[in-house]
Amino acid sequence: MVKRAGPIVLAVFLLTGCGAHSIQELKGGEGLKSGGHAAHGPARASGGTAVPGRDYNPADVMFLQMMMAHNGQGVRLARLAPDRAAREEVRTLAAAIATTQETEAASMSERLIGWRRPATARADEHAAHGGMPGVGEEEIAAVADAAPADFEKKFLNMMIAQQDDAIQLARMEVATGLNAEVKAMAERVDASRSAQIKQMLALLDQ
């Protein structure tokens, strides 16, 4: 895993359809550029063609559906920190992440309801786009079961991977979506996750 001294060499593992970014790549910005995971699953999200009579397209719908599920994973991870993290900075950051992602998910759900679209896409639709990026049950369990001395390192590494996936989903929405409000939401996701990753990398270096 990550060493506190010297270069950070952990490869941040991502779920279905995506490869892995190293923390060094993220520190250099490579994992946050449009290349990154955009070359994998989310990059294949359909877009461009508007839904007749509506101001959105399939990319807008898929972004909202995937981000709702992704935020649910992030909230589960974040809620592990209050009782386990040693540092107040980590606990505060985790609380902020949980609040932000819960608020986002509620807004995304309202928009999908307004469009009369389902909250989740069919499994085969996600598969066609490379799979749902994020962390799985085993990864969440590994963080939850970490020894106290290892928790923060594992938590921060996993959350960095989670937030980087959100950035790739958001950038694909900006590139292929149609609805102006959803694209603005994606830009906010990009900005907030990028700032959080920067903060978490700093915490790993301490």
UniProtKB/TrEMBL annotation:
InterPro entries per the UniProt record, alphabetical: DUF305_CopM-like, Ferritin-like
Gene3D superfamilies: 1.20.1260.10
Domain named DUF305: residues: 60-204
Pfam families assigned to the protein according to its UniProt record, in alphabetical order: DUF305
Origin superkingdom: Bacteria
Disordered: region residues: 33-52
PANTHER family for the chain: SLL0788 PROTEIN (PTHR36933)
Record's protein name: Uncharacterized conserved protein, DUF305 family
Organism of this sequence: Streptosporangium canum
